[in-house]
Design goal:
Protein name: SET domain-containing protein
Low-confidence stretches: 48-71
Number of helices: 4
Radius of gyration: 19 Å
Pfam family, one: SET
Domain SET: 16-109
Order of helices and strands: HHEEEEEEEEHH
Organism: Asterophora parasitica
Strand order of the largest sheet: 1-2
Shape: globular
Helix content: 25-40%
Structural class: alpha+beta
Strand content: 15-25%
Amino acid sequence: MVRAMFYALHNCKSNDPMSVRSIIDTNALNIGGLPGSYNGAYAVVGTDISRLNHRFICIDLLLPFGSANHEHHSCAPNAEYKWDLMSVALYVRAVQPIKKGEQVFITYCDLLQPRAKRQEKLQSKYSFKCSCPCCALPDDQSALSDARRTEVSKLSQELETTSDLLGVYKAQLEK
């Protein structure tokens, strides 16, 4: 049953409907690392990832113990997801108020990248052009948005570096 569900998933990468790698590339959500010696990233695969008007992507997890329902991509998401290893569950939480009946949006790309890079990533990985409100901005407004995203990215990297340095300093003090 699970095998049939897997092979029935959308495949935007290949004309071969049995191409396992293409099905995974189209439908996987990154969940980061897991315990063990493998240092790479892991992903979960959805059962119902499909485009709506070639704009957004829906997800239901290919897991027997539950699923997330109808989260969609946006470069200005109103929700985020987190994989919890202990409960083997995907949690979706609002990052801003979501009204009853409003669509839930998550992102499939690095939000701190400029529009062109986000568009390129989504096109190459999922074969669609994002038309969310951020990507639909006129060029002049998009340039301002890209500049803000670049500044936030730089500040985030500086904070990460500072945090790393503080951790090293604290470890030295504890010796």
